[in-house]
Amino acid sequence: MSRALPQARRVVVKIGSALITADGTGLDRPALQAWARQMAELREQGLEVILVSSGAVAEGMYRLGMTERPHQLHQLQASAAVGQMGLVQAYEQEFAAHGLHAAQVLLTHDDLADRERYLNARSTMQALLTLGTIPVVNENDTVAYEEIRLGDNDTLAALVANLVVADLLLILTDQEGLFDADPRRDPQARRIAEGRASDVTLQQFVAPEFGRLGRGGMATKLYAAERAARSGTHTVIASGREERVMARVLAGEDVGTWLQPDREPLAARKRWIADQLHSRGVLHLDEGAARVLRESGRSLLAVGVARVEGEFRRGEVVTCVAPDGSGVARGLVNYSAAEVERIRGLRADQIEAELGYQFEPELVHRDNMVLL
């Protein structure tokens, strides 16, 4: 059976810790050689390739003689600093064997949350691709702290796919794809060949998994596929140990699990808003405002806000929630938390009388809002 995958021009490949580190015994260099060869073949076919690679912390653990993933943040950061040296050196050597240059790109949540830094990252990534390099992307674990972590490299890969508007996100793991039961425990488990990225029922087949070396699991891969779909990106979750897996996936072979975007891609600015992992505050809406936003996608007015939570400034990202606590929307707010506290419940024509000025009649304009 073949798949009707769209013609891909730009591909993001994500390789997880369980694959790349040979189960804690250092980097699996034969595997790296095979993946580098496959990516070089894609480049020869005219495709642009971005690699999101785990393994820095795990490689650092191996070099430092650690047997368990550290729990203290400074030890994790130290492991990442040591391991990143070996990881990048290995990729540079493997790609150089094919006449290719690797480029190290380290990102944090703040790099992607700040609009100017986000645009700079996108321009730099575009320049690296134009120069024919293969960007090797990882989270900057050496400086990231818990409150601003991206969380896992599946999420990072999806954000990178949105950043560069990739055609395909290929997540390589130690499993053959998504199954309807745990294949390690149930011999009757069947692989799910394809599905929709927005299909929340797929979550019933997975549970969060945190391995000895990594933080991800199949659940994070499904979330990544849903996030990547915002830019129209297709996702395939497949085994990195499959022979020539990259070429076979791109040729449309029935390999792994194919998750298709089934909604219209978001505009670039709205995609950036949707990709914010940490909002600066919460606006608690009344029932009427929540219904209007969900049903018509109109702008949020101050009259519909019942309560304000958090500290935020004008222009920062806030989350709008319904009275039952469910998320309704996320957007850029036109007033600070202190100002919203003063004007909540007021009509637009009453704002100036209360504050002495009016930035905008809307609290969050629909052009700067994404429904959840």
UniProtKB/TrEMBL annotation:
Q: Which keywords annotate this record?
A: Amino-acid biosynthesis, ATP-binding, Cytoplasm, Kinase, Nucleotide-binding, Proline biosynthesis, Transferase
Instruction: Spell out the InterPro entries in the cross-references.
Output: AceGlu_kinase-like_sf (IPR036393), Asp/Glu/Uridylate_kinase (IPR001048), G5K_ProB (IPR041739), Glu/AcGlu_kinase (IPR001057), Glu_5kinase (IPR011529), Glu_5kinase/COase_Synthase (IPR005715), Glutamate_5-kinase_CS (IPR019797), PUA (IPR002478)
Q: Which reaction does it catalyse?
A: L-glutamate + ATP = L-glutamyl 5-phosphate + ADP
Q: Which GO terms describe its molecular function?
A: ATP binding; glutamate 5-kinase activity; RNA binding
Q: What class of enzyme is it?
A: transferase
Tell me which Pfam families the record gives: AA_kinase (PF00696), PUA (PF01472)
Q: What is its main location?
A: cytoplasm
Binding site residues for ATP = 14, 173-174
Q: What residues does the PUA domain cover?
A: 281-364
Where does this protein hold substrate?
Answer: 54, 141, 153
- Pathways involved: Amino-acid biosynthesis; L-proline biosynthesis; L-glutamate 5-semialdehyde from L-glutamate: step 1/2
Kindly give the SUPFAM superfamilies that the UniProt entry links to this protein. Answer: Carbamate kinase-like, PUA domain-like
Q: Please tell me one Gene Ontology term that the record gives under cellular component.
A: cytosol
The processes (GO biological process) annotated in the record are: L-proline biosynthetic process
| EC assignment | 2.7.2.11
Q: Which family does it belong to?
A: Belongs to the glutamate 5-kinase family.
Q: PANTHER family attached here?
A: GLUTAMATE 5-KINASE (PTHR43654), ISOPENTENYL PHOSPHATE KINASE (PTHR43654:SF1)
Protein name per its UniProtKB record = Glutamate 5-kinase
The organism encoding this protein is Thioalkalivibrio halophilus
Q: Which gene encodes it?
A: proB
